[in-house]
Specification:
Structural class: alpha+beta
Order of helices and strands: EEHEEHEH
Strand content: 15-25%
Number of helices: 3
């Protein structure tokens, strides 16, 4: 068995880290979105990574609440964090939850995360 290959300055660029790493962990936004979407008050959710001094990046969620969802958004945000914390790892719990009327989408229906970052 040959030794593992390593990259050097002459063999190519060194990797700068994965774009899907948040808080030092590999976090797929889809898993968090699916978890948020399983809450009865959520119609749709999108998750992006936002800068954090301590962790590099942390999850931030954008949520479209169902029409019959509780009006108290602070209480609903707390309930959503508890919902995610009970089902996923602690580093996957969104640090910030923003309620929006709709999520920006492409003509094919995919969520435009770039627009959420701006």
């Amino acid at each position: 068995m040959s030794p593992p290959r390593t990259r050097t300055a002459t063999s190519g660029p060194l990797p700068q880290g994965r774009r899907d790493q948040l808080a030092g962990f590999r976090i797929g936004p889809g898993e968090i979105e699916e978890c948020l979407g399983s809450h009865p008050a959520v119609a749709m959710a999108a998750v992006i990574g936002v800068p954090d001094e301590r962790r590099g990046e942390v999850p931030k969620a954008f949520v479209v609440a169902r029409e019959d969802a509780p009006a108290d958004r602070d209480a609903l945000a707390d309930a959503l964090r508890i919902h995610v914390r009970e089902r996923l790892a602690a580093h996957e719990v969104p640090r910030e939850i923003v309620f929006v009327d709709d999520l920006p989408r492409t003509t094919t229906g995919k969520i435009m995360r770039r627009a959420l970052r701006e």
